[in-house]
Amino acid sequence: MIKLKGIAVSLGIGIGKAYRIGQEEVTVPKRKIGHEEISREIYRLEEALIETRREITSLQKKIFQELGFDHSKIFEAHVLVLEDRVLIEDIIQQIKNKKVNVEFAFWTSIKKYMDTLLKLEDDYLRERVNDIDDVARRVLRKLLKKEIVSLKDLKEKVIVVAHDLSPSQTASLPKGNILAFVTDVGGRTSHTAIIARSLGIPAVVGVEIGTKNIKPGEKLIVDGSKGVVVVHPTERILKEYQKKSQQLVKARKAFHIPKVYKAQTKDKKEVDVSGNIELPEELPLVREYGAEGIGLYRTEFVFLGRRDLPSEEEQYQAYVNVARRVKPHSVIIRTMDIGGDKFLSQPQVPKEMSPFLGWRAIRFCLAQPEIFKVQLRAILRAAAEGEMKIMFPMISGIEELRQAKALLEECKEELRREKKNFKADISVGTMIEVPSAAMCADELAKESDFFSIGTNDLIQYSLAVDRGNEKVAYLYEPGHPGVIRLLKHVIETAHKNKIWIGMCGEMAGEPLFAYLLLGMGLDEFSMSPPRVPKVKDMIRNVFFQDAQRAAEKAVTLSTAKEVEKFLQEELKRMLRNEYERIVLT
Ligand code: PEP
Ligand code: MG
Predict the structure, then answer these.
(1) Which atom number of ligand 1 is nearest to the Cα of residue 452?
(2) Which listed ligand is nearest to 456 at the C-alpha?
(3) Is 131 left (phi over 0), alpha (psi -120 to 50) or beta?
(4) How far is the CA of 393 from the centre of ligand 1 (A)?
(5) Which of 337, 303, 304, 449 has the alpha carbon at shortest distance from 390?
(6) Which CATH architecture fits 256-584?
(7) What is the widest separation between alpha-carbon atoms in the chain?
(8) Ligand 2 center–CA 454 separation, angstroms
(9) Would you kindly state where each structural domain of the chain is located, as residue ranges?
(10) Helix, strand, coil proportions of the chain in percent (round to 5)?
């Protein structure tokens, strides 16, 4: 038995056989051809390209119906490869001049093409290598008359294991047959993670020592809540997880209460529980799990995976679509958080030594007002059609907030002059995710309508722990006294200034910490939608007064371990036999 540790990106437990995809080594035969065979080989190339194009178009349609426009757009890049005249000419020249078979000519040209892209500084183009590899394999299989090993034809359910999954692979997998995903690369916001979450399939990415130790057909357990993959489990472990998985399924069924029920404690303290989304395709899940609105809409996904910047109209359409669908509940839209681990192809940003401390989020936006204002205008217009609030990420002090607000005012003025419909009195929130912002909360609160704490970053910056680095992951502790004292300060300061305060970092979705935050007086909890029912159930089973007392005590403790142990004991006492279902599963 081996236990692999990775990043938990989509909740749930998957138990089944490993199915490896994407890394099959391709062996392409080389054959000398005679002069008379040249035209036949070129004809075969054209046929294969046409057939592949047909195959991709129908896949694109299917994805469009199942997952919507944003996911289906992924295939545009594939079609472009098939239509690339320079590439096609290169293959034809090889067939003609070197007198080699089409398969060999095709594979040699495509590899040259991919090698060139891999050497480029342009992130977008380098990322496209995956798409090219994907489409090239499709063409090659046609030429070699080998059928694509299609997961569609699988008779049994499997756990998909891959070094990486190209967007087209992930999107075209048949949901019904996938028990879980495991990949070597990727983070919480990688494409695999997003799709896994939107499909509700358990997933672990960024597996520390890689998936190379997993053989096809091997029994696996994937714990998407803890980020653990057990390879070849012992009978005892298997039984343990089977029990856990059954409990989870039972618990999920119990959680599926159709009507939205309030997040209210036994002594009638009510808070808001909302959902985080990256793409509009996740909206049905938000409703299904009973979240009341959107506490964080990560707009950077509107910008990623494309060569150009989305126009104001495109952005407006994307945002208004979300606003209308969530109405009458509210949507907190976060302006783009580019940089860190998410980069645009245009404008090109030079490589940085410490991207998380570099040109990211509001810093990037304030330096590029012509890009930022397009988004602000689109948001202001969309906000007129629903309940939309705006918030700025990575604010480190009052000057940045003032600059961002000044640009927002400029946009309002422009829209007014252009006689366009927009929401003039949109609420403006500040994300508290930089320690200096937490310490200067008093100044920021005076000029903000609300706060939303981004603990994913606040923890990484407070504890100096890279949130994506597995080696220091043990130091990433939400319960660290340094973190919870900072949270207490920010919540109290917000209330002193009479503004409401929420949290959209992952911490808000963990019942144990949600109990602490409830006691500290947090007003809104926003999380990935599948976490909503548990947090709501926790809140409905406790007394606010107890939570307040627990929070007062927790901040006096000296280590994260003590804090967690204390909260566990408290909640065990409060929840009794509901504890395991709500906190542990
Ligand atoms: C956070 O930092 O907690 C947050 C919600 O933002 P993101 O995860 O997108 O950085
Ligand atoms: Mg953040």
Answers:
(1) 5
(2) 1
(3) alpha
(4) 8
(5) 449
(6) Alpha-Beta Barrel (3.20)
(7) 88
(8) 5
(9) 2-20+154-253, 35-144, 256-584
(10) 55, 15, 30
State the amino acid at position 31 in one-letter form.
Answer: R
- Which residue's CA is the closest to the ligand 1 atom numbered 9? 298
Which residues pair with residue 332 across a beta bridge? 389
Mutate to test the pocket of ligand 1, among 431, 463, 476, 504 (most ligand atoms within 8 A of CB): 504
Query: Domain 2-20+154-253 falls in which CATH fold?
Result: Glucose Oxidase; domain 1 (3.50.30)
Residue nearest to atom 8 of ligand 1 (CA): 456
Superfamily of domain 35-144: PtsI, HPr-binding domain (1.10.274.10)
Residue pLDDT tens, the chain, 585 long: 888 988 888 888 999 999 887 655 567 888 999 999 999 999 999 999 999 999 888 888 877 776 667 667 777 778 888 888 889 999 999 999 999 999 999 999 998 888 887 777 776 676 677 778 778 888 988 888 765 555 555 668 899 998 877 655 665 667 678 899 998 877 665 667 767 876 778 999 888 777 777 888 899 999 998 899 999 999 999 999 999 888 877 766 665 554 568 999 999 999 999 999 887 877 888 888 889 899 999 998 788 766 689 999 999 999 999 999 999 999 999 999 988 877 776 677 778 888 899 999 999 999 999 999 999 999 999 999 999 999 999 999 999 999 999 999 999 999 999 999 999 999 999 999 999 999 999 999 999 999 999 999 999 999 999 877 767 878 989 999 999 999 999 999 999 999 999 999 989 999 999 999 999 999 999 998 888 988 999 999 999 999 999 999 999 999 999 999 999 999 999 999 889 888 876
CA of 394 to the centre of ligand 2 (A): 7
**Burial, 73: exposed, middle or buried (Cβ in 10 Å; 0-12, 13-18, 19+)?**
middle
- State the amino acid at position 579 in one-letter form: Y
User: Would the CB of 433 count as within 6 Å of ligand 1?
Assistant: yes
Indicate if 35-144 has the same CATH topology as 2-20+154-253.
no
Residues marked as catalytic: 191, 504
Q: What are the residue ranges of helices labelled H in 69-122?
A: 69-72, 76-82, 85-98, 102-118
Q: Is the CB of 457 under 6 A from ligand 1?
A: yes
Q: Ligand 1 atom closest to Cα of 454?
A: 3
Report the candidate in 528, 532, 9 with the shortest Cα–Cα distance to residue 279.
528
Give residue 276 CA to ligand 1 midpoint distance, Å: 10
Token pair belonging to 525: 């909890």
Q: Which ligand is nearest to the CA of 505?
A: 1
The ligand whose atoms approach the alpha carbon of 9 most closely is 1
How far apart are alpha carbons 500 and 448 in whole angstroms? Answer: 10
Report which protein residue has its CA nearest ligand 1's atom 4: 454
Cα of 504 vs centre of ligand 2, distance in Å, is 9
Q: Is the CB of 454 under 6 A from ligand 1?
A: yes
